[in-house]
Each structure stands twice: as structure tokens, then as C-alpha cells.
Automatic annotation (TrEMBL):
Membrane topology of the entry: Multi-pass membrane protein
TM helices/strands, residue ranges: 34-53, 65-85, 106-129, 149-168, 180-200, 220-238, 259-281, 293-326, 361-379, 391-414, 435-456, 462-481
Lineage, top ranks: Bacteria, Bacillati, Bacillota, Bacilli, Bacillales
Pfam families found in the cross-reference section: AA_permease_2
UniProt source species: Paenibacillus anseongense
Subcellular location: Membrane
InterPro entries, per database record: AA/rel_permease1
Top-rank taxon, per record: Bacteria
Protein name, per record: Amino acid permease
Keywords in alphabetical order: Membrane, Transmembrane, Transmembrane helix, Transport
Length: 507
């Protein structure tokens, strides 16, 4: 028997201990697991699409200081999540962790809050692709880009992602592997182009760390905090490595490393990219006032044709990011429906017999993501003078939804450890050892801080959206939860002690 077969048998047995059969195709290696999170983080999506947001509020210093500050705290969050993924390797991830560490109600709320964030991140990513792709297409075919044409482009992009995810995990896994290398290659091309072919000279390095300049009407320190959305939204979606954990070989080791290293590499590569883009700025005020600051900076620095080629390469990277985000979202929904957590759960938990993918969950993810952007489109039609941008709205919703969902199991792990219900013997092979509690506390404080920042003006629309969704969640709790949700199999009569005991019996 091959090493791979031995691993797959062990992984299947490991999953069985949590009450689940091996239904999804387990074919992803360590790089593929890393690649899906790296592709969703996508420094060529978050850092680029919100470049104007960061520049407007925090000036050039947002890139020099804001990006590293956010990255440091996000690495703390990622490390704690990696530790939990190693201990509880199921596709339900966040809500399975919450259910096992506390109870099924905590798990249910975590799943729905995560669902809100997943809708926001998919909509935000694919809308970012449309914001870049539509003007580029418009310049070729001679039409004028507008909110309507962007929405149509957004719909087509969503459709392509749905089809590819439906067809099969092998194709998507290969594309995600390619995406990781493609991101690195495009960043290298962008950096080298700006370093050697920028019109005129680059700004001095000190410009990257210039503070006190804002192009908003807010005091600088407050504006700087608002501008952190650029980096914070970029560093989302790395829980994808946990959501695809049942498709990963040797998941207790490979998925945690996928979570952590995807953030670490994105930090370093993203900082290098942002540094050169910022140092190539000719007129920061004009860039901040343009419809797309990144496109403006690249076009001014590299010229029309060369700049357009670079922008097409960046847009393609964004498309790969959206593809991976649908994969993650659909797996989360599949796992939740498998536990009867959603209305019509039997539909969303179905696996395509031909492709062995959660096909109906994939298309539900597409529909929900489209609706969030479409509702915003209708609001803009009724109120065309609205000051917030669609991309800031979608990204803030995803940050709050995802990070609250990240924070719940981190908080519950601290409580469970304090009460003696979660001990060192329950940890997986990837763990933080004696630093676990300290890093968990830092991560939790950052999550609380950033979620408050993301819903105060001018991002209040995101706060209203999240509040509205939470109200619907309470209504669903009263009407659906008590009658229909038995709880995840991972938590039903399976405390960490029992899982550990069963593990020893099977060894």
C-alpha cells in the first residue's frame, strides 16, 4: 500500500471519529490546501481593489504602517485558528469548533455569522474583478462603464466560477495551484516594471512611511483607522484551508500550515508590491480623487498600453481569487447543511454523483452573493447621491461577518481551557504550546477592535447590513433552530475526551 493510501485511510478513520463519512474526494496536497487560502487572500485583489480607500484615508503611510500592523495581528488570529484546525479537522471548521468547545447553539450562531461573512467576501471579490474588468473591456469595445455594466460583468464572473466549481475539485485545485504561482509571478512583473520602467523617478523610501496626510474630511488618526479596511479585508478567507480539510491528505498538519503560511506569505509579498506601487505615485491627491486609484497610479507610472497589460494580469489574478472563494463558501454550506443547520438542508448537502462536488451548495453560494450586490445596486438607483462605495460596503460586511465567526471559537477555546474541558492532550500536532493562551487573547482583542472600526461612519451601511442579518438570524433561531437543528455530528455526544478515547482505540 502506498504512503498516500495509508494517509487516506488514516484521514478517513480520523473523520469517522467525528461522526462523518468520507464523501468528498480527498485529493488535495499540502500546496493545494495552502494555495486555496493564498488565492482567496489574494494581495492582487484586496490590497489592489481597496488601494484607493487606504490612500484616501491614510495617505502613503497606510501602506508603510497600516499593512504591517494589520498583518501582525492577523497572523495571531491565523495561528490560533490553525491550532484549532489541527485539533478538530472537519469541513465545518469554525462552527464545529464552537459546537465541540461549548454547545450546538454556539455552533449554529457561528455558522450563520460565518455565512454572512462568506456572502460578503464572495460578492466583494467578484465585484472587485468586475470593477477592474469592465472599464478594460469598455475601452476595447467602446462603451461607457457604469454601475449597470459592472453588475452585468459581475454576474458573468460569478457564473464562470459556479460552472468550474460544479465540474470538479480536481480542476479547481489545479487552477488554485496555478493561481498561487500566478499571483507571485504577476507581483514580480509589477514590481520589476515599476522599479525599472516608471516614468520619472520613484519617490524616496521615506514617502512610504509618511504620516499625517489624508484626503478625507476626517482627523488623521481616525481616518487612518478607517483606512485599515484595505489591509484587513485582504487578510480574510484563510479559513478556506479548514473548510477544505476533508479534501486534504494529512489534514491535521497540512491544513494548519495552509492557514498560517497563506497569511505570512501574503504579508511579505503584499508589502513589497504596495511599497513599489506607492513609491511610483506622481500625484497622491489626483490618485485618491480618481474613480480607481490603483488603475490611475499604474497608468500614470507605466503609460497607456504597458499599464493596460499589467492591469489585465492583475484582473486575471482577481478572477482566480473569486474561484477559490466559491470553493470555500460552498464547502462551509455543505458541511452546515449536512448537519441540518439550514432550511432545505437535504438539498444543499447533496453531492453530485458525477463530479463529487456539493453542486447545489455551489449555486446557492452564487445566488446569495449576487443578491447582496444586487440589493446594493437597487439602493444606489433609489439614492444615487449615497456617499459610500459598493466595494467598501461589501468588504466591510465580509470583514465583520468573518472575523466575528473567527473570534467565537477562539473565545470558547479560552473558556474551555479555563474550565479544564480543553487540555493540551486535545491539541493536534500543530499547536502553539505554552504561548497559546497569550496569542489567543491578543487575537481576540484585535477582532473586537477591528469589528468596531469596520461599522462606524463612513462604513455604517455595513453595520446596518450586519445588524439586519443578525435580526433575521434571531428570527430563524426562534422559528427553525429548536425544531430542526440536532447539532453537528462532530459535537453530538462527542466531547473532546470521548474523541480522544476513540482515537486511542483506533490506533
Amino acid at each position: 500500500m502506498s504512503v498516500s493510501s495509508n494517509h487516506q485511510d488514516k484521514d478517513k478513520s480520523d473523520l469517522n471519529k467525528f461522526g462523518y463519512a468520507q464523501e468528498l474526494l480527498r485529493s488535495m496536497g499540502g500546496f493545494s490546501n495552502f494555495a486555496i487560502s493564498f488565492s482567496i487572500i489574494s494581495i492582487l485583489t484586496g490590497a489592489v481593489s481597496l488601494y484607493g480607500h487606504g490612500l484616501t484615508y491614510g495617505g502613503s503611510g497606510m501602506m508603510g504602517f497600516g499593512w504591517p500592523i494589520v498583518a501582525f495581528f492577523v497572523m495571531c488570529v491565523a495561528a490560533v485558528m490553525a491550532e484549532l484546525a489541527s485539533a478538530i479537522p472537519t469541513a465545518g471548521a469554525l462552527y464545529h469548533w464552537a459546537a465541540i468547545l461549548k454547545n450546538k447553539r454556539w455552533g449554529w450562531y457561528t455558522a450563520w455569522i460565518n455565512l454572512i461573512g462568506q456572502i460578503g467576501i464572495v460578492a466583494g471579490i467578484d465585484y472587485s474583478v468586475a470593477l477592474f474588468a469592465d472599464p478594460l473591456i469598455a475601452s476595447v469595445f467602446g462603451y461607457e462603464s457604469s454601475n449597470t455594466t459592472v453588475l452585468v460583468c459581475f454576474s458573468v464572473i460569478l457564473l464562470t466560477h459556479g460552472i468550474l466549481n460544479h465540474i470538479g475539485i480536481r480542476i479547481v485545485a489545479k487552477l488554485n495551484d496555478f493561481s498561487a504561482w500566478y499571483h507571485i509571478a504577476v507581483v514580480a512583473v509589477l514590481v520589476l516594471s515599476l522599479a525599472f520602467f516608471t516614468k520619472g523617478s520613484l519617490n524616496p523610501v521615506s514617502y512610504l512611511f509618511k504620516v499625517g496626510e489624508t484626503f478625507s474630511d476626517k482627523p488623521y488618526m481616525f481616518a487612518f483607522l478607517i483606512g485599515l479596511l484595505q489591509a484587513q479585508w485582504t487578510f480574510t478567507g484563510y479559513d478556506a484551508s479548514a473548510h477544505t480539510i476533508e479534501e486534504t491528505i494529512n489534514p491535521r498538519v497540512r491544513a494548519p500550515w495552509g492557514i498560517f503560511t497563506s497569511v505570512a506569505y501574503s504579508f511579505v509579498i503584499g508589502f513589497i508590491m504596495l511599497a513599489f506601487v506607492t513609491l511610483s505615485i506622481k500625484d497622491a491627491s489626483a490618485a485618491a480623487g480618481s474613480s480607481n486609484a490603483f488603475i490611475y497610479v499604474i497608468s500614470e507610472a507605466l503609460g497607456g498600453t504597458f499599464g493596460s497589460v499589467i492591469l489585465w494580469l492583475v484582473t486575471a489574478a482577481m478572477w482566480f481569487c473569486g474561484l477559490a472563494s466559491i470553493t470555500s463558501f460552498s464547502r462551509m454550506m455543505y458541511a452546515f447543511s449536512r448537519d441540518k443547520g439550514m432550511p432545505l438542508s437535504s438539498q444543499w448537502a447533496q453531492i453530485s454523483k458525477k463530479y463529487r462536488t456539493p453542486a447545489k451548495a455551489i449555486w446557492l453560494a452564487i445566488i446569495l452573493s449576487f443578491l447582496l450586490a444586487f440589493i446594493d445596486y437597487l439602493i444606489k438607483m433609489v439614492n444615487p447621491d449615497a456617499t459610500y462605495t459598493t466595494i467598501a460596503f461589501l468588504t466591510a460586511v465580509s470583514v465583520v461577518g468573518l472575523y466575528v465567526a473567527y473570534g467565537v471559537p477562539i473565545y470558547l477555546k479560552l473558556r474551555a481551557k479555563a474550565e479544564g474541558r480543553f487540555q493540551d492532550k486535545h491539541l493536534g500536532p500543530w499547536n502553539l504550546g505554552k504561548y497559546s493562551n497569550a496569542i489567543s487573547i491578543v487575537a481576540l482583542l484585535w477582532i473586537i477592535f477591528i469589528c468596531v472600526i469596520m461599522v462606524i461612519p463612513p462604513n455604517q451601511m455595513a453595520g446596518y447590513a450586519v445588524a439586519g442579518m443578525l435580526i433575521l438570524l434571531v428570527i430563524m433561531d426562534l422559528s427553525y433552530y429548536n425544531k430542526h437543528f440536532p447539532g453537528p455530528q462532530a459535537a453530538l455526544n462527542k466531547s473532546m475526551e470521548e474523541i480522544l478515547r476513540r482515537e486511542k482505540e483506533l490506533e
